[in-house]
Design goal:
This protein has helices at residues 23-33, 50-56, 69-79, 99-108, 129-146, 162-165, 177-188, 212-230, 232-261, 267-307; strands at residues 10-16, 38-43, 60-63, 84-87, 113-120, 158-161, 192-199. The chain is α/β, with parallel strands linked by helices. The protein folds into 2 domains: 10-230, Spore Coat Polysaccharide Biosynthesis Protein SpsA, Chain A (Alpha-Beta Complex), CATH 3.90.550; 232-305. It is elongated.
C-alpha cells in the first residue's frame, strides 16, 4: 500500500467506459503526480479491454454493472475508504499534474471540495462551443436557484474530503452526477474552492461519451427535480400565487355580474374560479408542510456531515 501523504490516505478514483486508448496513460500520470495515492479504476462494462489495460498499468480495477457515471460514482464513494478522494475522467483530458496542488489546497484551507475548472489548451474543438454554452446556462440556473459560487459546475475533475464523500447521497444515474455534487455542497454550505486546470484534447481514436442535447436535457431535469425537492416552499408558493391570481381573474367578472343582476350566468367559470382558489390554498399549505420536511432533512444531512471527522493533516 502507498504511504500516507501528510498523514492522510489518498485515493484516486477514475470512472471508465471504453477508454482503452487513454486509461493506461491516465493511471501512469496520476501515479507520477501522487505516488502516495491508491489508484482505483471503476470499469462500467467496457468492451474494449480498458479494465485489463488499467490493471496492467497498476490500478486496482472494480467492475460496475449498472451503466451510467452516476451509478459508478455511487459505487466509488461507497466502496473506497480514504481521507481524500481525487476524481477525474479516464479520457486523458484532465491534467493529472494539478492533482497535488488541488489536494494541498483542500488540506491547507480546510475545504471539502476543490473543483478543477477547465482551461482549454489548443483549438476550440477541445471544449466545443455547444458544451461551453450549455455549461454556462446550467451553471447559471443552479446559481439562480441555489446560490452563486461555481463557474464550471460540470467539471469532472474534483478533490473531496472524506466527510463530503460519505455524506453524499448520490441519486443520479448518469452525467448529471456533477450537478448533484455541486448542489450537495451548496445545500450543506460546505467549504469549497475552484482552481483553474488545463483541459486537454482527447487522444486520437478516443470518442466522447457525452451527448450535448441528451445529457443537457437530463441535467436540466435533475436541476428541476432537485429544485422541487430542496426548494418546495418557493415552488408551491409561486404556484399558489399563480392560482390565486387566476381565481381572481376568473371570479371578479362573475361576482360583478352577480352584484348587478343577482344571477350567475357563467356557472362553469364560477366553478373554475372557486377551484383555483381552493387549489391555491392547498398549495400554500403544501409549501408550509414541505418546508418543514426539507428543514428536518437538511438538519439530518448536516448532522451526518458533521459526525465525520474533518481533515487534520500532519505537517509537510
Amino acid at each position: 500500500m502507498p504511504s500516507p501523504y501528510r498523514g492522510l490516505a489518498i485515493a484516486v478514483v477514475l470512472p471508465c467506459y471504453n477508454e482503452a486508448t487513454a486509461i493506461a496513460g491516465v493511471v501512469a500520470a496520476f501515479r507520477a503526480a501522487l505516488p502516495e495515492a491508491q489508484i482505483y479504476v471503476f470499469d462500467n462494462r467496457s468492451t474494449d479491454g480498458s479494465a485489463e489495460l488499467a490493471c496492467k498499468a497498476g490500478a486496482r480495477v472494480l467492475k460496475v454493472d449498472m451503466r451510467g457515471k452516476g451509478n459508478v460514482v455511487r459505487r466509488m464513494f461507497a466502496d473506497v475508504e480514504a481521507d481524500i478522494y481525487v476524481m477525474a475522467d479516464s479520457d486523458g483530458t484532465y491534467d493529472a499534474g494539478a492533482a497535488r496542488t488541488m489536494v494541498d489546497r483542500l488540506i491547507d484551507n480546510g475545504l471539502d471540495m476543490v473543483v478543477g475548472t477547465r482551461v482549454p489548451q489548443g483549438d476550440g474543438e477541445i471544449y466545443r462551443f455547444g458544451h461551453r454554452f450549455g455549461n454556462s446556462v446550467l451553471t447559471g440556473t443552479v446559481a439562480w436557484i441555489f446560490g452563486e459560487g461555481f463557474t464550471d459546475m460540470l467539471s469532472g475533475y474534483r478533490v473531496f474530503s472524506r466527510r463530503y464523500v460519505k455524506s453524499f447521497p448520490a441519486l443520479s444515474k448518469g452525467f448529471e452526477i456533477e450537478t448533484e455534487l455541486t448542489i450537495h455542497a451548496l445545500e450543506l454550505r460546505a467549504p469549497y474552492a475552484e482552481m483553474p486546470t488545463a483541459y486537454l484534447a482527447r487522444q486520437e481514436g478516443s470518442e466522447s461519451k457525452l451527448s450535448t442535447w441528451g445529457d443537457g436535457a437530463r441535467i436540466f431535469k435533475t436541476i428541476l427535480r432537485l429544485y422541487a425537492r430542496e426548494r418546495p416552499r418557493q415552488l408551491y408558493l409561486l404556484l399558489a400565487v399563480a392560482l390565486f391570481l387566476a381565481s381572481l381573474g376568473l371570479g371578479i367578472p362573475v361576482i360583478v355580474e352577480f352584484l348587478k343582476t343577482g344571477l350567475v350566468p357563467r356557472l362553469p367559470t364560477a366553478v373554475m374560479a372557486a377551484s383555483c382558489m381552493l387549489a391555491a390554498m392547498l398549495s400554500g399549505i403544501c409549501a408550509v408542510i414541505l418546508d418543514s420536511v426539507v428543514t428536518g432533512r437538511t438538519e439530518a444531512k448536516r448532522l451526518r456531515y458533521l459526525a465525520i471527522p474533518a481533515v487534520h493533516p500532519q505537517d509537510r
